Amino acid sequence: MEVTSNIYHGDSKEVLKQLPANSVDLIVTSPPYADQRKNTYGGIHPDQYVKWFLPISEQLLRVLKPSGTFILNIKEKVFI
User: Fold this and answer.
1) Running DSSP on this structure, what letter comes out for residue 21?
2) pLDDT 10s per residue in the chain (80 long)?
3) Which residues contact 49 (CB under 8 A, 6 or more apart)?
4) Which residues have C-beta within 8 Å of that of residue 62, sequence separation ≥ 6?
5) From CA 80, how far away is CA 76, in angstroms rounded?
């Protein structure tokens, strides 16, 4: 069995569109913590977070194999 690893770096809204459906075994992601990372990501108001993340999650589901694993690292509040 051959095992290959690829790390994709970039805006997930664009990079995921380039990947074929059902082609990824493992997705590990830690999206921005809403408005807690304003200086880094521009900030997302907590009330808009789900609306912002849904299009990304649709692409994650599209590329993940049925036997794949998805790990989402997220907290409800971060103090800097």
Assistant:
1) T
2) 888 888 888 888 889 999 999 999 999 888 766 666 566 666 677 788 888 889 989 999 999 999 999 998 877 665 55
3) 34
4) 16, 21, 22
5) 13
Scored b (16 or more CB within 10 A) or e, 7-26 reads eeeeebeeebeebeeeebee
Query: Mapping DSSP to helix (H, G, I), strand (E, B) and coil, where does residue 45 land?
Result: coil
What's the farthest any 2 CA atoms get from each other in the chain? 46
pTM for this entry: 0.73
Q: Which two tokens stand for residue 11?
A: 């805006």
